[in-house]
Amino acid sequence: MPLKGELAVFLVALLVVNTIAESPYRFFKWNVTYGTIWPLGLPQKGILINGQFPGPDIHSVTNDNVIINVFNNLDEDFLISWNGIQNRRNSFEDGVWGTTCPIPPGKNFTYILQVKDQIGSFYYFPSTAFHKASGGFGGFRILSRPGIPVPFDEPAGDFTVLIGDWYKSNHTYLKSILDRNHKLPFVDALHINGHGPQGPNRASFTVDQGKTYRLRLSNVGLEHSLNFRIEGHKMKLVEVEGTHTMQETYSSLDVHVGQSYSVLITADQTPKDYYIVVSNRFSSILLTTTGVLHYSNSNQEFTGPPPGGPTSEIGWSLTQARSIRTNLTASGPRPNPQGSYHYGMINTTRTIRLANSAGQVNGKQRYAVNSVSFVPTKSGTPLKLADYFNIGGFTPGNIPDAPTGKGIYLDTSVLQTDYRTFIEIVFENKEGIVQSWHLNGYAFWVVGMDGGKWSPASRDQYNLRDAVSRITTQVYPKSWTAIYIALDNVGMWNLRSEFWARQYLGQQLYMRVYTTSTSWRDEYPIPINALLCGDVAGRHKRPL
Protein backbone atom coordinates (compact mmCIF):
# COMPACT_ATOMS: atom_id res chain seq x y z
CA MET A 1 0.00 0.00 0.00
CA PRO A 2 1.21 3.60 -0.58
CA LEU A 3 2.98 5.23 2.36
CA LYS A 4 0.84 7.29 4.70
CA GLY A 5 1.47 11.03 4.81
CA GLU A 6 3.34 11.17 8.11
CA LEU A 7 5.56 8.23 7.26
CA ALA A 8 6.25 9.63 3.81
CA VAL A 9 7.42 12.94 5.27
CA PHE A 10 9.65 11.12 7.75
CA LEU A 11 11.10 8.93 5.02
CA VAL A 12 11.85 11.88 2.80
CA ALA A 13 13.61 13.57 5.71
CA LEU A 14 15.85 10.54 6.06
CA LEU A 15 16.49 10.36 2.35
CA VAL A 16 17.77 13.88 2.02
CA VAL A 17 20.47 13.54 4.68
CA ASN A 18 23.08 13.27 1.95
CA THR A 19 21.89 16.28 -0.05
CA ILE A 20 23.00 19.85 0.48
CA ALA A 21 20.83 21.16 3.28
CA GLU A 22 20.80 24.78 2.14
CA SER A 23 19.53 23.95 -1.36
CA PRO A 24 15.76 24.32 -1.85
CA TYR A 25 13.40 21.37 -2.17
CA ARG A 26 10.73 20.87 -4.80
CA PHE A 27 8.15 18.14 -4.14
CA PHE A 28 6.09 16.33 -6.76
CA LYS A 29 3.47 13.59 -6.45
CA TRP A 30 2.82 11.66 -9.65
CA ASN A 31 0.11 9.11 -10.36
CA VAL A 32 0.96 6.95 -13.37
CA THR A 33 -2.10 5.47 -15.07
CA TYR A 34 -3.35 4.19 -18.39
CA GLY A 35 -5.73 6.48 -20.24
CA THR A 36 -7.11 7.29 -23.66
CA ILE A 37 -4.97 9.59 -25.79
CA TRP A 38 -5.55 10.97 -29.31
CA PRO A 39 -2.15 11.78 -30.86
CA LEU A 40 -3.22 10.75 -34.38
CA GLY A 41 -6.87 11.73 -34.13
CA LEU A 42 -7.97 8.25 -33.07
CA PRO A 43 -8.23 6.85 -29.53
CA GLN A 44 -5.20 4.93 -28.21
CA LYS A 45 -4.23 3.46 -24.86
CA GLY A 46 -1.51 5.69 -23.46
CA ILE A 47 0.47 6.26 -20.27
CA LEU A 48 -0.53 9.36 -18.33
CA ILE A 49 1.11 11.16 -15.43
CA ASN A 50 -1.41 12.96 -13.25
CA GLY A 51 -3.86 12.53 -16.12
CA GLN A 52 -1.59 14.34 -18.57
CA PHE A 53 -0.06 13.33 -21.90
CA PRO A 54 2.70 14.38 -22.26
CA GLY A 55 3.44 14.42 -18.56
CA PRO A 56 3.85 17.57 -16.44
CA ASP A 57 6.96 19.70 -16.80
CA ILE A 58 9.49 19.76 -13.98
CA HIS A 59 10.76 23.29 -13.28
CA SER A 60 13.85 23.56 -11.10
CA VAL A 61 16.88 25.75 -10.37
CA THR A 62 20.55 24.78 -10.19
CA ASN A 63 21.30 22.67 -7.07
CA ASP A 64 17.63 22.14 -6.19
CA ASN A 65 16.62 18.91 -4.50
CA VAL A 66 13.81 17.45 -6.60
CA ILE A 67 11.66 14.94 -4.70
CA ILE A 68 9.27 12.95 -6.92
CA ASN A 69 6.92 10.39 -5.36
CA VAL A 70 5.76 8.13 -8.19
CA PHE A 71 2.71 5.89 -7.70
CA ASN A 72 2.50 3.08 -10.26
CA ASN A 73 -1.16 2.41 -11.05
CA LEU A 74 -0.37 0.34 -14.15
CA ASP A 75 -0.71 -3.44 -14.26
CA GLU A 76 3.04 -3.89 -14.86
CA ASP A 77 6.37 -2.70 -13.48
CA PHE A 78 7.30 0.90 -14.27
CA LEU A 79 10.52 2.90 -14.14
CA ILE A 80 11.36 6.51 -15.03
CA SER A 81 14.75 7.81 -16.12
CA TRP A 82 15.92 11.42 -16.24
CA ASN A 83 17.58 12.17 -19.56
CA GLY A 84 20.48 14.53 -18.83
CA ILE A 85 20.11 14.74 -15.04
CA GLN A 86 23.53 13.63 -13.85
CA ASN A 87 22.55 12.29 -10.40
CA ARG A 88 26.05 13.03 -9.22
CA ARG A 89 27.49 10.41 -6.85
CA ASN A 90 24.12 8.67 -6.89
CA SER A 91 23.50 6.33 -9.83
CA PHE A 92 21.03 4.43 -7.61
CA GLU A 93 18.43 7.05 -8.66
CA ASP A 94 19.19 6.91 -12.39
CA GLY A 95 16.04 4.99 -13.28
CA VAL A 96 17.29 2.44 -15.82
CA TRP A 97 17.34 -1.35 -15.52
CA GLY A 98 21.02 -1.56 -14.58
CA THR A 99 20.75 0.82 -11.61
CA THR A 100 17.23 0.86 -10.19
CA CYS A 101 14.55 -1.74 -9.47
CA PRO A 102 11.25 -0.96 -11.18
CA ILE A 103 8.18 0.11 -9.23
CA PRO A 104 5.76 -2.85 -8.92
CA PRO A 105 2.08 -2.38 -9.79
CA GLY A 106 0.16 -0.71 -6.97
CA LYS A 107 3.35 0.52 -5.25
CA ASN A 108 5.20 3.80 -5.09
CA PHE A 109 8.79 4.99 -5.00
CA THR A 110 10.23 8.39 -4.13
CA TYR A 111 13.06 9.56 -6.38
CA ILE A 112 15.51 11.90 -4.67
CA LEU A 113 17.34 13.93 -7.31
CA GLN A 114 19.67 16.88 -6.96
CA VAL A 115 20.36 18.94 -10.07
CA LYS A 116 23.85 19.67 -8.81
CA ASP A 117 25.78 22.23 -10.87
CA GLN A 118 23.44 21.91 -13.85
CA ILE A 119 21.36 24.19 -16.05
CA GLY A 120 19.51 23.53 -19.25
CA SER A 121 16.78 21.70 -21.14
CA PHE A 122 16.18 17.98 -20.62
CA TYR A 123 13.34 15.48 -20.36
CA TYR A 124 12.23 12.36 -18.49
CA PHE A 125 10.80 9.15 -19.93
CA PRO A 126 9.82 5.57 -18.98
CA SER A 127 12.88 3.41 -19.54
CA THR A 128 11.63 -0.20 -19.49
CA ALA A 129 9.10 -2.47 -21.26
CA PHE A 130 8.99 -0.17 -24.31
CA HIS A 131 6.66 2.13 -22.33
CA LYS A 132 8.22 5.11 -24.08
CA ALA A 133 6.09 4.24 -27.15
CA SER A 134 2.91 5.00 -25.17
CA GLY A 135 3.85 8.22 -23.38
CA GLY A 136 4.98 8.85 -19.82
CA PHE A 137 7.49 11.48 -20.95
CA GLY A 138 7.74 15.19 -20.17
CA GLY A 139 10.08 18.18 -20.02
CA PHE A 140 12.66 18.84 -17.30
CA ARG A 141 14.17 22.31 -17.18
CA ILE A 142 16.86 23.66 -14.86
CA LEU A 143 17.07 27.44 -14.58
CA SER A 144 20.14 29.41 -13.53
CA ARG A 145 20.34 30.59 -9.94
CA PRO A 146 19.52 34.26 -9.25
CA GLY A 147 22.59 36.38 -9.79
CA ILE A 148 24.21 34.03 -12.32
CA PRO A 149 24.30 35.89 -15.64
CA VAL A 150 22.53 34.35 -18.63
CA PRO A 151 23.79 35.40 -22.11
CA PHE A 152 20.40 36.59 -23.39
CA ASP A 153 17.52 38.68 -22.14
CA GLU A 154 14.65 37.10 -20.23
CA PRO A 155 12.17 35.86 -22.86
CA ALA A 156 8.48 36.77 -22.78
CA GLY A 157 7.59 33.08 -22.61
CA ASP A 158 9.27 29.70 -22.29
CA PHE A 159 7.70 26.70 -24.07
CA THR A 160 8.49 22.98 -23.84
CA VAL A 161 8.27 21.41 -27.32
CA LEU A 162 8.50 17.61 -27.32
CA ILE A 163 8.72 16.09 -30.80
CA GLY A 164 8.95 12.48 -31.85
CA ASP A 165 7.82 9.64 -34.06
CA TRP A 166 4.73 7.63 -33.16
CA TYR A 167 2.95 4.31 -33.74
CA LYS A 168 -0.78 3.68 -33.84
CA SER A 169 -0.08 0.49 -31.87
CA ASN A 170 0.65 0.73 -28.17
CA HIS A 171 3.78 -0.41 -26.36
CA THR A 172 2.44 -3.87 -25.53
CA TYR A 173 2.04 -4.83 -29.18
CA LEU A 174 5.35 -3.27 -30.22
CA LYS A 175 7.15 -5.00 -27.37
CA SER A 176 5.65 -8.33 -28.43
CA ILE A 177 7.20 -7.88 -31.88
CA LEU A 178 10.61 -7.22 -30.35
CA ASP A 179 10.22 -10.08 -27.86
CA ARG A 180 9.83 -12.38 -30.87
CA ASN A 181 13.11 -10.83 -32.03
CA HIS A 182 11.66 -9.18 -35.12
CA LYS A 183 12.18 -5.67 -36.45
CA LEU A 184 9.50 -3.06 -35.93
CA PRO A 185 7.55 -1.70 -38.92
CA PHE A 186 8.02 1.90 -40.05
CA VAL A 187 6.44 4.48 -37.74
CA ASP A 188 2.96 5.81 -38.55
CA ALA A 189 3.37 9.54 -37.89
CA LEU A 190 5.17 12.35 -36.07
CA HIS A 191 3.90 14.44 -33.16
CA ILE A 192 4.46 17.79 -31.45
CA ASN A 193 3.66 17.64 -27.72
CA GLY A 194 1.53 14.57 -28.35
CA HIS A 195 -0.44 16.18 -31.21
CA GLY A 196 -0.24 14.58 -34.63
CA PRO A 197 -0.89 15.90 -38.15
CA GLN A 198 -4.69 16.07 -37.96
CA GLY A 199 -5.99 19.63 -38.45
CA PRO A 200 -8.00 20.28 -35.24
CA ASN A 201 -5.49 18.31 -33.20
CA ARG A 202 -2.46 20.48 -33.95
CA ALA A 203 -0.18 21.76 -31.20
CA SER A 204 -0.49 25.55 -30.84
CA PHE A 205 1.69 28.22 -29.26
CA THR A 206 0.41 31.78 -28.78
CA VAL A 207 2.82 34.73 -28.98
CA ASP A 208 2.54 38.50 -28.77
CA GLN A 209 3.85 40.49 -31.69
CA GLY A 210 7.30 41.99 -31.14
CA LYS A 211 8.22 39.73 -28.22
CA THR A 212 10.87 37.01 -28.01
CA TYR A 213 10.21 33.46 -26.78
CA ARG A 214 12.29 30.46 -25.78
CA LEU A 215 11.46 27.04 -27.19
CA ARG A 216 12.96 24.01 -25.48
CA LEU A 217 13.03 21.29 -28.14
CA SER A 218 13.51 17.61 -27.28
CA ASN A 219 13.28 14.62 -29.60
CA VAL A 220 11.55 12.08 -27.33
CA GLY A 221 10.91 9.65 -30.19
CA LEU A 222 11.91 6.07 -30.80
CA GLU A 223 14.11 6.21 -33.86
CA HIS A 224 14.00 9.11 -36.30
CA SER A 225 16.12 12.22 -36.60
CA LEU A 226 13.72 15.14 -37.06
CA ASN A 227 13.98 18.59 -38.59
CA PHE A 228 12.23 21.49 -36.83
CA ARG A 229 11.32 24.79 -38.47
CA ILE A 230 8.84 27.68 -38.19
CA GLU A 231 7.42 29.35 -41.26
CA GLY A 232 8.87 32.83 -41.78
CA HIS A 233 10.88 32.84 -38.54
CA LYS A 234 14.55 32.38 -37.76
CA MET A 235 15.73 30.49 -34.68
CA LYS A 236 18.67 31.64 -32.56
CA LEU A 237 20.33 28.69 -30.80
CA VAL A 238 21.24 29.58 -27.20
CA GLU A 239 21.61 26.30 -25.27
CA VAL A 240 22.26 22.62 -25.92
CA GLU A 241 21.68 20.12 -23.09
CA GLY A 242 23.09 22.35 -20.38
CA THR A 243 25.66 24.32 -22.38
CA HIS A 244 25.18 27.93 -23.51
CA THR A 245 26.17 28.02 -27.17
CA MET A 246 27.41 30.57 -29.65
CA GLN A 247 24.22 32.22 -30.81
CA GLU A 248 24.03 31.03 -34.40
CA THR A 249 20.83 31.60 -36.36
CA TYR A 250 19.12 28.79 -38.28
CA SER A 251 16.12 28.48 -40.59
CA SER A 252 15.67 24.87 -39.50
CA LEU A 253 17.36 22.59 -36.99
CA ASP A 254 18.07 18.85 -37.02
CA VAL A 255 17.20 17.28 -33.66
CA HIS A 256 18.40 13.69 -33.48
CA VAL A 257 16.62 11.21 -31.25
CA GLY A 258 17.35 11.85 -27.58
CA GLN A 259 18.69 15.37 -28.12
CA SER A 260 17.53 18.70 -26.66
CA TYR A 261 18.02 22.30 -27.82
CA SER A 262 16.91 25.78 -26.72
CA VAL A 263 16.18 28.39 -29.38
CA LEU A 264 14.89 31.96 -29.27
CA ILE A 265 12.31 33.17 -31.77
CA THR A 266 10.99 36.70 -32.17
CA ALA A 267 7.40 37.32 -33.26
CA ASP A 268 8.43 39.96 -35.77
CA GLN A 269 6.28 39.01 -38.77
CA THR A 270 2.87 40.11 -40.02
CA PRO A 271 0.24 39.01 -37.47
CA LYS A 272 -1.34 35.71 -38.53
CA ASP A 273 -0.88 31.99 -37.97
CA TYR A 274 2.39 30.37 -39.09
CA TYR A 275 3.22 26.72 -39.59
CA ILE A 276 5.46 24.94 -37.12
CA VAL A 277 6.83 21.97 -39.07
CA VAL A 278 8.48 18.73 -37.99
CA SER A 279 9.64 16.24 -40.63
CA ASN A 280 11.79 13.13 -40.55
CA ARG A 281 15.29 12.95 -41.99
CA PHE A 282 17.39 10.38 -43.86
CA SER A 283 14.51 8.13 -44.93
CA SER A 284 12.93 7.12 -48.22
CA ILE A 285 9.51 7.50 -46.56
CA LEU A 286 8.85 11.14 -45.68
CA LEU A 287 6.57 12.14 -42.80
CA THR A 288 5.51 15.63 -41.75
CA THR A 289 3.44 17.04 -38.93
CA THR A 290 2.53 20.64 -38.26
CA GLY A 291 1.67 22.88 -35.35
CA VAL A 292 0.64 26.52 -35.13
CA LEU A 293 2.53 29.64 -34.11
CA HIS A 294 -0.41 31.91 -33.37
CA TYR A 295 -0.07 35.71 -33.08
CA SER A 296 -2.41 36.86 -30.32
CA ASN A 297 -3.51 39.97 -32.27
CA SER A 298 -4.67 38.04 -35.35
CA ASN A 299 -7.53 35.81 -36.42
CA GLN A 300 -5.98 34.97 -39.80
CA GLU A 301 -5.19 31.30 -40.29
CA PHE A 302 -2.23 30.12 -42.34
CA THR A 303 -2.65 29.58 -46.04
CA GLY A 304 -0.87 27.37 -48.52
CA PRO A 305 1.38 24.40 -47.85
CA PRO A 306 3.87 24.25 -44.98
CA PRO A 307 7.48 25.15 -45.83
CA GLY A 308 9.70 22.32 -46.96
CA GLY A 309 12.93 21.32 -45.30
CA PRO A 310 15.97 19.11 -45.76
CA THR A 311 15.33 15.42 -46.36
CA SER A 312 18.28 13.12 -47.02
CA GLU A 313 21.16 15.63 -47.11
CA ILE A 314 23.80 14.31 -44.71
CA GLY A 315 26.38 16.95 -45.60
CA TRP A 316 23.91 19.72 -44.69
CA SER A 317 23.31 18.16 -41.28
CA LEU A 318 27.02 17.56 -40.63
CA THR A 319 27.83 21.19 -41.44
CA GLN A 320 25.13 22.37 -39.06
CA ALA A 321 26.37 20.05 -36.30
CA ARG A 322 29.91 21.41 -36.62
CA SER A 323 28.59 24.97 -36.33
CA ILE A 324 27.22 24.30 -32.81
CA ARG A 325 29.91 25.49 -30.41
CA THR A 326 30.25 26.46 -26.76
CA ASN A 327 29.99 30.12 -25.77
CA LEU A 328 33.28 30.34 -23.87
CA THR A 329 32.50 33.65 -22.18
CA ALA A 330 29.04 32.73 -20.87
CA SER A 331 28.50 31.51 -17.33
CA GLY A 332 27.17 28.01 -16.82
CA PRO A 333 25.72 26.83 -13.50
CA ARG A 334 28.45 28.82 -11.75
CA PRO A 335 29.54 32.43 -12.34
CA ASN A 336 32.84 31.37 -13.92
CA PRO A 337 32.86 31.23 -17.75
CA GLN A 338 32.20 27.91 -19.48
CA GLY A 339 35.58 28.25 -21.22
CA SER A 340 37.52 28.21 -17.96
CA TYR A 341 37.81 24.40 -18.19
CA HIS A 342 40.39 23.82 -20.94
CA TYR A 343 39.47 20.29 -21.98
CA GLY A 344 41.70 20.47 -25.07
CA MET A 345 44.83 20.81 -22.94
CA ILE A 346 44.26 17.58 -20.98
CA ASN A 347 45.92 14.38 -22.17
CA THR A 348 43.58 11.45 -22.58
CA THR A 349 44.66 8.25 -20.83
CA ARG A 350 42.58 5.78 -22.82
CA THR A 351 40.87 5.51 -26.20
CA ILE A 352 37.76 3.35 -26.52
CA ARG A 353 36.33 2.64 -29.97
CA LEU A 354 32.70 1.49 -30.02
CA ALA A 355 31.13 0.14 -33.20
CA ASN A 356 27.42 -0.57 -33.60
CA SER A 357 26.23 -3.56 -35.61
CA ALA A 358 23.08 -5.50 -36.46
CA GLY A 359 22.65 -9.20 -37.07
CA GLN A 360 21.11 -12.40 -35.82
CA VAL A 361 21.90 -14.72 -32.95
CA ASN A 362 20.34 -18.17 -33.23
CA GLY A 363 18.06 -16.87 -35.96
CA LYS A 364 16.79 -13.93 -33.88
CA GLN A 365 17.33 -10.21 -34.51
CA ARG A 366 19.91 -8.58 -32.25
CA TYR A 367 21.94 -5.36 -32.10
CA ALA A 368 25.40 -5.02 -30.60
CA VAL A 369 28.31 -2.82 -29.53
CA ASN A 370 31.75 -4.25 -30.39
CA SER A 371 29.94 -7.52 -31.19
CA VAL A 372 28.40 -7.77 -27.68
CA SER A 373 24.60 -7.69 -27.52
CA PHE A 374 23.53 -6.71 -24.03
CA VAL A 375 21.27 -8.99 -22.00
CA PRO A 376 20.26 -8.54 -18.33
CA THR A 377 21.63 -10.86 -15.69
CA LYS A 378 19.70 -14.12 -15.22
CA SER A 379 18.53 -13.05 -11.76
CA GLY A 380 17.27 -9.69 -12.98
CA THR A 381 19.28 -7.91 -10.29
CA PRO A 382 20.24 -4.38 -11.37
CA LEU A 383 23.99 -4.17 -11.88
CA LYS A 384 24.41 -1.29 -9.46
CA LEU A 385 22.76 -3.28 -6.66
CA ALA A 386 24.69 -6.44 -7.49
CA ASP A 387 27.88 -4.39 -7.40
CA TYR A 388 26.97 -2.65 -4.14
CA PHE A 389 26.11 -5.89 -2.35
CA ASN A 390 29.04 -7.70 -3.99
CA ILE A 391 26.99 -10.66 -5.23
CA GLY A 392 28.48 -10.86 -8.72
CA GLY A 393 26.51 -12.06 -11.70
CA PHE A 394 28.43 -9.98 -14.24
CA THR A 395 32.04 -9.36 -15.20
CA PRO A 396 33.33 -5.77 -15.41
CA GLY A 397 35.56 -5.32 -18.44
CA ASN A 398 33.89 -8.02 -20.53
CA ILE A 399 33.48 -5.77 -23.57
CA PRO A 400 36.59 -4.99 -25.65
CA ASP A 401 37.95 -1.46 -26.12
CA ALA A 402 37.82 -1.77 -29.92
CA PRO A 403 35.76 -3.63 -32.53
CA THR A 404 36.84 -7.25 -32.92
CA GLY A 405 35.13 -8.11 -36.18
CA LYS A 406 33.58 -11.19 -34.56
CA GLY A 407 29.99 -12.25 -34.89
CA ILE A 408 27.39 -10.97 -32.44
CA TYR A 409 27.12 -12.76 -29.10
CA LEU A 410 25.08 -12.22 -25.92
CA ASP A 411 26.51 -10.99 -22.61
CA THR A 412 25.87 -8.50 -19.80
CA SER A 413 28.37 -5.97 -21.11
CA VAL A 414 30.04 -3.70 -18.55
CA LEU A 415 32.89 -1.38 -19.51
CA GLN A 416 35.31 -0.93 -16.60
CA THR A 417 36.70 2.61 -16.36
CA ASP A 418 38.73 4.43 -13.73
CA TYR A 419 37.40 7.27 -11.66
CA ARG A 420 39.05 10.67 -12.21
CA THR A 421 40.55 9.84 -15.57
CA PHE A 422 40.08 11.68 -18.86
CA ILE A 423 39.25 9.44 -21.81
CA GLU A 424 38.39 9.47 -25.48
CA ILE A 425 35.50 7.47 -26.97
CA VAL A 426 35.09 7.08 -30.72
CA PHE A 427 31.71 5.92 -31.99
CA GLU A 428 32.11 4.10 -35.31
CA ASN A 429 29.06 3.60 -37.52
CA LYS A 430 29.62 1.37 -40.54
CA GLU A 431 25.88 1.02 -41.12
CA GLY A 432 23.67 3.06 -43.43
CA ILE A 433 21.60 4.68 -40.65
CA VAL A 434 22.12 7.70 -38.41
CA GLN A 435 22.99 6.54 -34.91
CA SER A 436 22.40 8.49 -31.71
CA TRP A 437 24.34 7.71 -28.53
CA HIS A 438 23.54 8.82 -24.99
CA LEU A 439 25.54 8.47 -21.76
CA ASN A 440 23.78 8.80 -18.41
CA GLY A 441 25.53 10.61 -15.57
CA TYR A 442 27.72 12.78 -17.76
CA ALA A 443 28.09 15.51 -20.31
CA PHE A 444 30.90 15.09 -22.85
CA TRP A 445 32.70 17.22 -25.43
CA VAL A 446 31.90 16.34 -29.04
CA VAL A 447 35.37 17.05 -30.41
CA GLY A 448 35.01 15.64 -33.93
CA MET A 449 32.80 13.94 -36.47
CA ASP A 450 33.34 13.01 -40.10
CA GLY A 451 32.66 10.43 -42.77
CA GLY A 452 34.79 7.37 -43.43
CA LYS A 453 36.97 5.43 -41.03
CA TRP A 454 38.47 6.94 -37.89
CA SER A 455 42.23 6.75 -37.38
CA PRO A 456 44.65 8.44 -34.96
CA ALA A 457 45.29 11.01 -37.71
CA SER A 458 41.63 12.04 -37.39
CA ARG A 459 42.59 13.84 -34.19
CA ASP A 460 44.21 16.54 -36.30
CA GLN A 461 40.73 17.87 -37.10
CA TYR A 462 39.39 17.79 -33.52
CA ASN A 463 37.94 20.97 -32.03
CA LEU A 464 40.00 21.37 -28.87
CA ARG A 465 38.80 24.87 -28.03
CA ASP A 466 35.03 25.33 -28.07
CA ALA A 467 33.40 21.96 -28.80
CA VAL A 468 29.89 21.71 -27.43
CA SER A 469 29.43 19.78 -24.19
CA ARG A 470 26.28 17.68 -24.32
CA ILE A 471 24.71 14.34 -23.34
CA THR A 472 23.62 12.82 -26.68
CA THR A 473 25.48 12.81 -30.00
CA GLN A 474 24.68 11.63 -33.49
CA VAL A 475 26.90 9.49 -35.72
CA TYR A 476 26.16 9.79 -39.42
CA PRO A 477 26.03 6.77 -41.77
CA LYS A 478 29.43 5.20 -42.46
CA SER A 479 30.97 7.84 -40.24
CA TRP A 480 32.50 8.41 -36.82
CA THR A 481 32.06 10.80 -33.89
CA ALA A 482 34.67 11.36 -31.17
CA ILE A 483 34.02 12.59 -27.64
CA TYR A 484 36.14 13.46 -24.60
CA ILE A 485 34.87 12.66 -21.09
CA ALA A 486 36.18 13.60 -17.65
CA LEU A 487 35.18 10.61 -15.52
CA ASP A 488 34.36 12.53 -12.35
CA ASN A 489 31.07 10.86 -11.40
CA VAL A 490 31.36 7.51 -9.62
CA GLY A 491 28.69 4.94 -10.39
CA MET A 492 27.17 2.56 -12.92
CA TRP A 493 26.08 4.51 -16.00
CA ASN A 494 24.08 3.43 -19.04
CA LEU A 495 25.63 4.07 -22.47
CA ARG A 496 23.03 3.31 -25.12
CA SER A 497 21.70 3.77 -28.60
CA GLU A 498 18.69 6.09 -28.53
CA PHE A 499 17.26 4.08 -31.42
CA TRP A 500 14.89 2.46 -28.94
CA ALA A 501 14.30 -0.91 -30.61
CA ARG A 502 18.07 -1.32 -30.93
CA GLN A 503 18.55 -0.46 -27.28
CA TYR A 504 15.86 -2.98 -26.34
CA LEU A 505 17.53 -5.72 -28.38
CA GLY A 506 21.03 -5.23 -27.03
CA GLN A 507 22.67 -2.05 -28.35
CA GLN A 508 23.70 -0.71 -24.97
CA LEU A 509 26.21 -1.30 -22.20
CA TYR A 510 27.01 -0.02 -18.74
CA MET A 511 30.07 2.02 -17.83
CA ARG A 512 31.36 1.22 -14.35
CA VAL A 513 33.26 4.27 -13.09
CA TYR A 514 35.09 3.21 -9.98
CA THR A 515 38.47 2.58 -8.37
CA THR A 516 39.54 0.50 -5.41
CA SER A 517 40.19 3.73 -3.50
CA THR A 518 36.65 5.03 -4.00
CA SER A 519 35.09 5.89 -0.63
CA TRP A 520 31.86 7.27 0.82
CA ARG A 521 33.20 10.74 0.05
CA ASP A 522 32.99 9.89 -3.66
CA GLU A 523 29.60 8.14 -3.71
CA TYR A 524 26.45 8.30 -1.65
CA PRO A 525 25.31 5.10 0.10
CA ILE A 526 22.27 3.27 -1.17
CA PRO A 527 19.07 5.26 -0.47
CA ILE A 528 17.26 3.92 2.56
CA ASN A 529 14.05 3.56 0.52
CA ALA A 530 15.72 1.78 -2.42
CA LEU A 531 13.58 -0.92 -3.97
CA LEU A 532 15.27 -4.32 -3.85
CA CYS A 533 14.68 -7.00 -6.46
CA GLY A 534 16.34 -10.05 -7.98
CA ASP A 535 18.93 -11.75 -5.79
CA VAL A 536 19.28 -8.85 -3.35
CA ALA A 537 15.57 -8.96 -2.44
CA GLY A 538 15.88 -12.36 -0.81
CA ARG A 539 19.47 -12.42 0.41
CA HIS A 540 20.26 -9.01 1.83
CA LYS A 541 18.82 -6.19 3.84
CA ARG A 542 19.65 -2.64 2.95
CA PRO A 543 22.22 -1.14 5.32
CA LEU A 544 21.20 1.66 7.69
TrEMBL record:
<dbReference type="Pfam" id="PF07732">
    <property type="entry name" value="Cu-oxidase_3"/>
</dbReference>
<dbReference type="InterPro" id="IPR045087">
    <property type="entry name" value="Cu-oxidase_fam"/>
</dbReference>
<dbReference type="Pfam" id="PF07731">
    <property type="entry name" value="Cu-oxidase_2"/>
</dbReference>
<dbReference type="InterPro" id="IPR034273">
    <property type="entry name" value="CuRO_1_AAO-like"/>
</dbReference>
<dbReference type="InterPro" id="IPR011706">
    <property type="entry name" value="Cu-oxidase_C"/>
</dbReference>
<feature type="domain" description="Plastocyanin-like">
    <location>
        <begin position="158"/>
        <end position="298"/>
    </location>
</feature>
<dbReference type="InterPro" id="IPR008972">
    <property type="entry name" value="Cupredoxin"/>
</dbReference>
<dbReference type="InterPro" id="IPR001117">
    <property type="entry name" value="Cu-oxidase_2nd"/>
</dbReference>
<dbReference type="InterPro" id="IPR011707">
    <property type="entry name" value="Cu-oxidase-like_N"/>
</dbReference>
<keyword id="KW-0732">Signal</keyword>
<feature type="domain" description="Plastocyanin-like">
    <location>
        <begin position="32"/>
        <end position="145"/>
    </location>
</feature>
<protein>
    <recommendedName>
        <fullName>L-ascorbate oxidase homolog</fullName>
    </recommendedName>
</protein>
<dbReference type="Pfam" id="PF00394">
    <property type="entry name" value="Cu-oxidase"/>
</dbReference>
<comment type="similarity">
    <text>Belongs to the multicopper oxidase family.</text>
</comment>
<keyword id="KW-0325">Glycoprotein</keyword>
<feature type="signal peptide">
    <location>
        <begin position="1"/>
        <end position="21"/>
    </location>
</feature>
<feature type="domain" description="Plastocyanin-like">
    <location>
        <begin position="381"/>
        <end position="516"/>
    </location>
</feature>
